[in-house]
């Protein structure tokens, strides 16, 4: 029987359609991208080489270079060492997610997915023939997940629970205590936990000392967990397509390696070397410090905007990651977020992301801001948006009118 076709990937299509003409791109989810020159400037060791142009461009090590995989393994070794061979390098987290889902989910399986989130995480399992239920985080609970609701969703054929932590689009986190409860449930029902952790470790508004601070799922005491990540978001390097799959389970990694062999062979050796350099001890601290400072500064600027337009917008202030999900209304009624975003890009060059189009119909009125762009872009873009709020906002249609 043919598998269900994939439905359009709304957020990626929206980005593709508008990105090139945006004057103020406040929709991008990466922390402002950097050049190789800037990356080298962030290094504490100016002697260390980023790339040697005399290197022969072979396929390299098929699953990813030893250097890159051991730098990544260090990131997951805070509680217990992780071996480099438990990591597979992929072209971005998008390929990592695809590989994990293709390898581990199929017809007859039931999958539960955190919601709202990146559409790939629930559409791909559906297309593979799995039944998917959404585990909804709700704004009135500050986008937190309820473990009792998860328990009620579990069926005899539930195979996997998918989470996204920190979360796109809300910028919230799944707290340590919720992760602990999730692991208990997973253990009891023998479930695989897949965590898209592409926004780790961009924790701009929570201290690592906080009891809520979420560890990676790989630091939790349960073997059947698998994490995906990349250098695109927290490390500002989306232009090298480097992501990864990591698990402590040889069985899970082996299953993914088998599927990966059909799509990837290896990633670009240049990309692999640049990523290894960025994640080395000489560079990673400077890079993350730049990005966390930028996120804090820009979030402060966005918070001032929200405060001054309280009559029109409300939010749960983000804690981590690069996005904020802001709800816009007029006299208590949701505005048409798609018309709002379309009008903004047409008339002002401001690019935002409409919630109901990109994250599900129920998010009418919501707009996702990617606030970790260059600070001047955010400043200038919000200035333009202020002007629009004063002059054009009242003319926007309400969500119900379409
Ligand atoms: C939650 C999530 N996962 C994965 C990706 C893909 O990222 P990349 O392939 O650039 O690593 C994105 C991009 O927006 C995302 O938001």
């Amino acid at each position: 029987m043919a598998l269900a076709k994939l439905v359009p990937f709304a957020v990626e299509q929206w980005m593709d359609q508008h990105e090139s003409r945006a004057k103020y791109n406040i929709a991008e989810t990466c922390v402002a991208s950097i050049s190789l020159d800037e990356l080298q400037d962030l290094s504490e060791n100016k002697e260390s080489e980023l790339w040697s142009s005399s290197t022969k461009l072979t396929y390299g090590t098929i699953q990813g270079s030893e250097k890159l995989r051991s730098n990544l393994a260090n990131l997951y070794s805070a509680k217990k060492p992780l071996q480099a061979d438990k990591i597979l390098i992929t072209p971005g987290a998008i390929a990592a997610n695809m590989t994990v889902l293709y390898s581990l989910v199929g017809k007859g399986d039931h999958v539960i997915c955190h919601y709202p989130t990146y559409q790939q995480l629930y559409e791909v399992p559906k297309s593979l023939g799995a039944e998917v239920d959404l585990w909804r985080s709700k704004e009135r609970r500050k986008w937190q997940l309820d473990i009792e609701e998860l328990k009620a969703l579990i069926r005899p054929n539930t195979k996997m629970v998918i989470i996204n932590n920190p979360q796109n689009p809300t910028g919230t986190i799944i707290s340590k205590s919720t992760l602990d409860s999730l692991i208990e449930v997973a253990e009891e029902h023998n479930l695989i936990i897949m965590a898209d952790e592409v926004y780790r470790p961009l924790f701009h508004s929570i201290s690592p000392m906080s009891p809520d601070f979420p560890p990676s799922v790989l630091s939790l005491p349960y073997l059947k967990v698998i994490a995906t990540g990349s250098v695109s978001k927290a490390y500002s390097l989306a232009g090298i397509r480097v992501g990864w799959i990591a698990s402590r389970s040889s069985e899970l990694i082996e299953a993914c390696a088998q599927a990966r062999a059909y799509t990837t062979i290896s990633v670009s050796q240049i990309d692999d070397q640049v990523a290894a350099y960025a994640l080395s001890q000489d560079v990673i601290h400077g890079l993350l410090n730049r990005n966390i400072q930028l996120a804090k500064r820009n979030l402060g600027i966005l918070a001032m905007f929200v405060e001054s337009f309280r009559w029109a917008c409300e939010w749960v202030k983000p804690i981590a990651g690069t996005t904020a999900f802001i709800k816009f209304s007029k006299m208590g009624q949701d505005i048409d977020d798609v018309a709002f975003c379309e009008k903004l890009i047409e008339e002002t060059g401001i690019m935002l992301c409409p919630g109901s189009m990109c994250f599900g119909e129920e998010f009418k009125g919501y707009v996702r801001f990617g606030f970790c762009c260059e600070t001047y872009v955010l400043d200038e873009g919000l200035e333009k948006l202020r002007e629009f709020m004063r002059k054009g906002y009242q003319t926007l249609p309400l969500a119900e009118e379409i």
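Residues 29, 92-94, 97, 118, 164, 168, 196, 198, 230, 232, 238, 243 surround pyridoxal-5'-phosphate (CB under 6 Å). Residues 51-283 form a domain with the Aspartate Aminotransferase; domain 2 fold (CATH 3.40.640.10).
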